[in-house]
UniProtKB/TrEMBL annotation, chains A, B:
<dbReference type="InterPro" id="IPR029061">
    <property type="entry name" value="THDP-binding"/>
</dbReference>
<dbReference type="InterPro" id="IPR023962">
    <property type="entry name" value="Phosphoketolase"/>
</dbReference>
<dbReference type="InterPro" id="IPR018970">
    <property type="entry name" value="Xul5P/Fru6P_PKetolase_N"/>
</dbReference>
<dbReference type="GO" id="GO:0016832">
    <property type="term" value="F:aldehyde-lyase activity"/>
</dbReference>
<dbReference type="Pfam" id="PF03894">
    <property type="entry name" value="XFP"/>
</dbReference>
<keyword id="KW-0456">Lyase</keyword>
<feature type="domain" description="Xylulose 5-phosphate/Fructose 6-phosphate phosphoketolase C-terminal">
    <location>
        <begin position="600"/>
        <end position="802"/>
    </location>
</feature>
<keyword id="KW-0786">Thiamine pyrophosphate</keyword>
<comment type="similarity">
    <text>Belongs to the XFP family.</text>
</comment>
<dbReference type="Pfam" id="PF09364">
    <property type="entry name" value="XFP_N"/>
</dbReference>
<dbReference type="InterPro" id="IPR005593">
    <property type="entry name" value="Xul5P/Fru6P_PKetolase"/>
</dbReference>
<dbReference type="GO" id="GO:0000287">
    <property type="term" value="F:magnesium ion binding"/>
</dbReference>
<dbReference type="GO" id="GO:0005975">
    <property type="term" value="P:carbohydrate metabolic process"/>
</dbReference>
<dbReference type="InterPro" id="IPR019790">
    <property type="entry name" value="Xul5P/Fru6P_PKetolase_CS"/>
</dbReference>
<dbReference type="InterPro" id="IPR018969">
    <property type="entry name" value="Xul5P/Fru6P_PKetolase_C"/>
</dbReference>
<protein>
    <recommendedName>
        <fullName>Probable phosphoketolase</fullName>
        <ecNumber>4.1.2.-</ecNumber>
    </recommendedName>
</protein>
<dbReference type="InterPro" id="IPR009014">
    <property type="entry name" value="Transketo_C/PFOR_II"/>
</dbReference>
């Protein structure tokens, strides 16, 4: 890693001259070296230069890895190196077929970067031995492209996100070329299939360029690929339909001279880069209309340059080359021979000098310093990360004269602040969402920016807040939003993703991969911290409105907390000021995934800004104004809430208890930071047992109203002293309804039911308060009946406000605001 | 619902005559009626026939629903009705834009089906009032197409699966036409974008036909759609690239006569259906090569026939028509007027008779009986479901002379049985997987069937087990596999989906939607039970081999158990015979989602077939042969395992304890059915507390080795008496390694660590067994050291077998088999 300054690209046009034979030979030698290093990584434990005859003990006991895709990846790496050097074009490489880990590691090693960041993997015979041994070996490196791989922003695990990541990297990096290799296996995935359309969202002047390279090697694990088995015309049409100008290159499948192949491919690559330079030049002159961006179809044999047949079965150019073609090389002498011939076919003696160092002429193909794809600072985004300029969120807070004394749509308040975040950070902050930014109430941002769009425009009557450059990215694909954002963050920028809570499960597995990436990077010293991935889930389970049962699922939180505690944070702010304080914290944080759930419907505000700041900082706390406990004494019962709707119901229950059972000492606790509930040994935010006991008591009943599946609260608190006394109400996969109170009733989270829980859980009350209990039961039945008849909630419930708020906000006004806000999907 | 006999389609060619004016007028009247009923559902509480002047109180207090997509859906419904009647073509309708619930409900009502299945929604004015009121109303029906909607197999919630479901329905239904409407919003999702390629997997002779209709109404919630804003040439290319022959229809956007529009569209539809008839005729004559299947691009205004402008803002043909265009109709007199004019524009007085019944001429457009799309039995698949013919799984069992006395790859054994399941059920059972059927060890099935494929063939040298018809469906898209299978099951067939455990999270949200569908259908009497959705997760977290950290995530189980207990089952069979017994049960079950996790690597068998049957039936039990407890007494400690790798380590720990602490009374419990751990009040499979206590004791330490995230065991058992004594080891997001024992060590689930846990948890042992404890610590360190050096596990660990198995299986043989089986991704 030599610099933190990004390279300035010039989008130069090439020389127009065909390459001379020396350059072609150098490309070929580089390619042979990379392939040799790749095969070496997969198979060899010792004897890395084959200076001794290959012995069975030189072969690893467990052969793991993926050869098939690798030679295509190294071929592209070699050619890109040549072009980068010629054009001084800042370029990063996204390897969609991340299985081909050895190829990218080989590239970084040939670049010299590998030895710079891993000083024990030296540029000599011993370093080569270590390079080979560590691959897919206990205590070594993974077989896939991974955070450990210099130059990568793209995990080689789950397929489908190569183009989304590439475009995410390109946004706001006008001088960056992202070479994105798409495997034809990956191309069958849904996320990849839609991500081609990213070209309708990129701005030719203000953003960088993605060069998609569809690598058709024809096979997956055990099958041909779809795109390799449709006609050339269909494939061509598909790419044109995706908005690309395809350049088709077919590698020789027989004994054609490699130099000829290199010459032909270099010509294609130069054509493509010249077309890109031309588009960039036009864009610089103001023509930013969407061009047909070039892309390359690269058709090669799978496992190219490997053994053609093994045991009489076609291997190269078949699915049999996918993984480790000679799995029994250690135990089958003929296979060992084939491996030996295969390795020597790359002529290692020409590629490495006496000491095992790559010979100068080969090494000379690598560009200098950060022009090396493995050393490009964009691929280690933390190097380029700048703090956001954040306006003081306190100035955006809402007035809360008394608790419940004003009403807000919390995300709308957040939107005002985000508007200035956008304004102050015009080139390194973006908001991503699947057509829901306004629906999720962040529409204020459209006062200062637009949705970036580069497909056709129809005019202002219908195209509101749509323009060729803007900070909001909307496409109806959660995969795209997440993938774009990941690419944007990993290249050193900031952003957030708003989505409906139910649909965020669409990206469960993408979240997994990103969280795992973050976890691993924390242990890699040269990987600098990147901005956190921030979610805002504003259309949540408790207000379905236009949407049905299928839109209800609060389980993303459960999914998230399965990941390593050090990288995940979950916040459930109960009102607007708390949301502001929380989000300010999130946008300042690094290397986390922050999940923030905050409903978008009008709801009462409870905390002043100062209170909200203190409450957010603590993560949870007693709301003394809401309880009836005596100072210095333990309460009779604790009412706890996490989430905005549960908080409302808990307060309404506290109100009933205060009126009906004035002697009952009730403590009200509100939880913002869910991780605080966990043991301090489990999560860095976790409370100590002493702190937990001080809040929740060791022996008093706790009636806990939770936003999501109730299990999670038990899971987070099961080691706590008072756990047996915690009684949780939450979402339980029940029904569908369209009125808010009916919804909480369906799930037994309503105020009446919470009061019933208090009566049932508090010793003595069951008997003494049978009458109150029955009134609660009756109230629920009456409320249910009313909604069935009127299609709306009982006014007394709908219009309820926290009693102290009576003066500040007339209850009817409040009610009118709370219950008429429409949902917007 | 009039019949359970599927209609026999004839794939007739149309008359070739243009439609007469009376027919066109009937289509238009039907369309007007469906639109009237749709608007009525969204807005009206009373006055359904507008026989009185429209009053504000006739309007619902909360206006919810989606108008924008609806008129396009009803337009297609009307035209399909006409064509179905003429051709007697069995047809179902998949509404991708499922938001348009009112449209499909209106269709079913006009067909007469609605009143047949919901007898209180009569065909008169009172029935209309109920139809209107119930829509998106507490206690009513959801606003989306849902299980409650007759004729639907497709939930209108999360977008992206219309085509996958449609193709799933078409497989093995050679006479069925599936009209699949794809919204242009949905078309932006990843799953939908790849699902067009389903046409490479359908067999023109043996399968039905999917007619994709891309409905370009141009807008989403607040944005234009991508496909509506690319050039006609690009869109055309895209469809050709997807393998379709597009037929473009542009509805008049101005005052064009509706009859003319109907005439033009009917012509397009007839052309398309004639092309399909022609393809089917050719296929019947043996030409089953993939044709360019026709599809329709239907370009209409969004909110077609609704108010053009509201408050001066363009509404129809803009995103403003997406939801409820006149949200304040109740409180704004001008809006009420607009609504009145809008409703009356459909001329309800011509459409309903005095009693409120649909007039005969309109009703006449509906086909007869099960030819009605709303009554087609394929859309209520349970009606057509036949039991599978299941071979006696006991005959496929493996010999287990003594526990651990033989070695199997459990899924390979299952594959032998599945081979005969395939053979015995040649047209109603399919296996779905993302290129992993062989990798997951089910390759035996290729002895009797092939992978169905209809793209190009390259010949037997590379195309193994690939043919134009076969029972295995492989595409590298978990979304497609899941979507196809869902469509296949919901139309009354059987199947299973094999996937890597880590990647099954890709379909988390699809699982959600299917589980919710099942939950709701259980409460709908006319929906007959369908076959369960069966997963087989055979490449699990504990054996990563070729794959890295990114491939590790056992959290799908956690995700699944969040859903309603009555629809989910999770099984972790520890050996081959148990897997057989489990899967036989799964394939016989109905209306569940069954998740079965079973590793594919060679592993010892512990139970004879008889034992396995008993063990599976109980779901968990004491393995007496593995323990050292005295009969009739409580043990000193319980070692429990759920999952194959945890079982192996628990047994190895039990072996150590037996040798080192012969006086310690150890009980060994194995859990197959995870739901048994839950309370009987939480899950129908749950143990009673008494049963649980009998097994796990109330007060002895339980060291529990679990396949997944340890939390889940706490979550399932937190109410149990002995919960405080349960100490769980499971997967904890650690590291990446390539040797099996190193992997379990990384997660502290290894035998040595389990022994340490026993020592630490069992009163008295901590002090007395400090020496043994230290030896265990040392053994772990030595084992770790060895893997780092040799790339393989210590032979004594790798070769360990259950001591009683010593005679039956030589330990070296066993070891050789256990640790050389390669992984295959």
């Amino acid at each position: 890693m030599t610099t933190t300054t990004p390279v300035t690209a010039t989008w130069r046009t090439g020389s127009g001259e065909p390459l001379d034979t020396a350059t072609l030979a150098r490309i070929d030698a580089w390619w042979r070296a990379a392939n040799y290093l790749s095969v070496g990584q997969i198979y060899l434990l010792n004897n890395p230069l084959l200076r001794e005859p290959l012995d069975r003990d030189d072969v690893k006991p467990r052969l793991l890895g993926h050869w098939g895709t690798t030679p295509g990846l190294t071929f592209l790496y070699a050619h890109l190196n040549r072009a980068i050097q010629e054009r001084e074009q800042s370029t990063i490489y996204v390897a969609g077929p991340g299985h081909g880990g050895p190829g990218l590691v080989a590239g970084a090693y040939l670049d010299g970067t590998y030895s710079e960041v891993y000083s024990d993997v030296t540029e000599d015979a011993e370093g080569l031995r270590r390079l080979f041994k560590q691959f897919s070996f206990p205590g070594g490196i993974p077989s896939h492209v991974a955070p450990e791989t210099p130059g990568s922003i793209h995990e080689g695990g789950e397929l489908g996100y190569a183009l989304s990541h590439a475009y995410g990297a390109a946004f706001d990096n006008p001088d960056l070329l992202v070479a994105a290799v798409v495997g034809d296996g990956e191309a069958e995935t849904g996320p990849l299939a839609t991500s081609w359309h990213s070209n309708k969202f990129v701005n030719p002047a203000k953003d960088g360029v993605v060069l998609p390279i569809l690598h058709l090697n024809g096979y997956k694990i055990a099958n041909p690929t779809v795109l390799a088995r449709i006609s050339d015309d269909e494939l061509n049409s598909l790419m044109v339909g995706y908005g690309h100008k395809p350049h088709v290159f077919v590698a020789g499948f027989d004994d054609e001279s490699h130099l000829d192949i290199h010459r032909r491919f270099a010509t294609v690559l130069d054509e493509v880069l010249d077309e890109i330079a031309d588009i960039k030049a036009r864009a610089a002159n103001g023509d930013v209309a969407r061009p047909m961006w070039p892309m390359i179809v690269l058709r090669t044999p799978k496992g190219w340059t490997g053994p053609d047949y093994i045991d009489g079965k076609k291997t190269t150019d078949s699915w049999r080359a996918h993984q480790v073609p000679l799995a029994s090389a250690r135990d089958t002498p003929e296979h060992l021979q084939v491996l030996d011939r295969w390795l020597r076919s790359y002529r290692p003696e020409e590629l490495f000098d006496e000491d095992g160092r790559v010979v100068r002429d080969v090494r000379a193909l690598a560009p200098a310093g950060p022009l090396r794809m493995s050393d490009n600072p964009h691929a280690n985004g933390g190097l380029l990360l700048k703090d956001l300029r954040l306006p003081d969120f306190r100035e955006y807070g809402v007035e809360v004269p008394v608790p419940g004394g004003s009403i807000s749509e919390a995300p709308r308040v957040l939107g005002e602040w985000l508007t200035d975040v956008v304004r102050l950070n015009p080139d390194n902050f973006r908001i991503f969402g699947p057509d829901e930014t306004a629906s999720n109430r962040l529409q204020a941002v459209f006062g200062v920016t637009d949705k970036q769009w580069n497909a056709d425009f129809y005019g202002p009557e219908v195209d509101e807040h749509l323009s060729r450059a803007g900070r909001v990215m909307e496409m109806l694909s959660e995969h795209q939003c997440q993938g774009w954002l990941e690419g944007y963050l990993l290249t050193g920028r900031h952003g957030l993703f708003t989505s409906y809570e139910a649909f965020i499960h669409i990206v469960d597995s993408m979240f997994n991969q990103h969280a795992k990436w973050l976890k691993v990077t924390r242990e890699i010293p040269w990987r600098r911290p990147v901005a956190s991935l921030n979610y805002l889930l504003s259309s949540h389970v408790w207000r379905q409105d236009h949407n049905g049962f299928s839109h209800q699922d609060p389980g993303f939180i459960d999914h998230v907390v399965n990941k390593k505690a050090e990288v995940v944070r979950v916040y459930l702010p109960a009102d607007a000021n708390t949301l502001l304080a929380t989000y300010d914290h999130c946008l300042r944080s690094r290397n986390y995934v922050n999940v923030v759930v905050a409903g978008k419907q009008p709801a009462p505000n409870f905390l002043t800004m100062d209170q909200a700041i203190a409450h957010s900082a603590r993560g949870l706390g007693i709301w003394e104004w809401a309880g009836t406990e005596a100072p210095g004494e333990d309460p009779d019962v604790v009412l706890a809430a996490a989430g905005d709707v549960p908080t409302l119901e808990v307060l309404a229950a506290a109100d009933i208890l205060r009126r009906e059972l004035p002697d009952l000492k009730v403590r009200v606790i509100n939880v913002v930071d869910l991780m605080r509930l966990q043991d301090e040994r489990e999560h860095p935010h976790g409370l100590s047992d002493r702190e937990f006991d001080t809040l929740f008591t060791q022996d008093r009943p706790v009636v806990f109203a939770y936003h999501g599946y109730p299990w999670l609260i038990h899971r987070l608190t099961y080691r706590r002293n008072g756990h047996a006394n915690i009684h949780v109400r939450g979402y339980k996969e029940e029904g569908t309804t369209t009125t808010p109170f009916d919804m909480v009733m369906l799930n037994d989270l309503d105020r009446f039911h919470l009061v019933i829980d208090v009566i049932d859980q508090t010793p003595g009350l069951g008997q003494s308060q049978a009458g109150l209990r029955q009134r609660m039961v009756d109230a629920r039945l009456a409320a249910r009946q009313y909604t069935r008849e009127h299609g709306d909630d009982v006014p007394e419930i709908r219009d309820w406000v926290w009693p102290d708020a009576g003066d500040a906000a007339s209850s009817t006004e409040v009610a009118a605001t709370i219950f008429t806000g429409g949902d917007n999907e």
